[in-house]
Each structure stands twice: as C-alpha cells, then as structure tokens.
Write a structure and sequence with these properties.
Layout: E1 2-8, E2 18-23, E3 29-33, E4 39-42, E5 47-53, E6 60-63, E7 68-70, E8 81-84
C-alpha cells in the first residue's frame, strides 16, 4: 500500500487530485483520487514505483516523493506531494 497527502505550498489539502503509482519495470499504472483531507491510498502489488500527481492550470510540484520499493505487506506512508503556483 502506498499512501500520502497532497497539499498546497500553504499547507491546504488538495481534494480531487489524481495520484498515479507507476511500476518501474512494467509501466503498470495504479490510480487514486485525493480525499477532502488531501490524503490518498493506492493498493499495489510488490514492485518499485514512481508517483505522479495531477497538476492544474499554473500548478508546479514543489515537493515530490522519491521512488519507493513496495514489498508484500508493506505500507509506504508519508509519500507526500506539495504543489505551488
């Protein structure tokens, strides 16, 4: 499981943003949409993942998580994005 938060640079949670986990070896994609608190959770099989977040007009990524290795039973939490303008 991969989880984290998407917030603005001011710390405001960003609801309704699509977060995509992309498996490095196969390019298989797994999506989730952020909740009202900016949180997301994506269930994925074991593998190495990079994460992307949906940007909207004028958005830029101020902070993005590094690639993460997910093993059976792992919960990789606190994979957070910060979006600025």
């Amino acid at each position: 499981t991969i989880s984290g938060m998407v917030t603005s640079s001011a710390g405001t949670p960003l609801e309704g943003r699509r977060v995509t986990a992309i498996e490095a070896a196969t390019s298989q994609r797994y999506d989730a949409t952020t909740a009202a608190n900016g949180g997301y959770t994506i269930k994925v099989p074991p593998g190495r993942y990079r994460l992307e977040v949906e940007l909207r007009g004028g958005d830029q990524i101020a902070q993005q998580p590094e690639q993460t290795q997910v093993n059976v039973g792992d919960v990789d939490a606190q994979l957070n994005f910060v979006i600025g303008r």
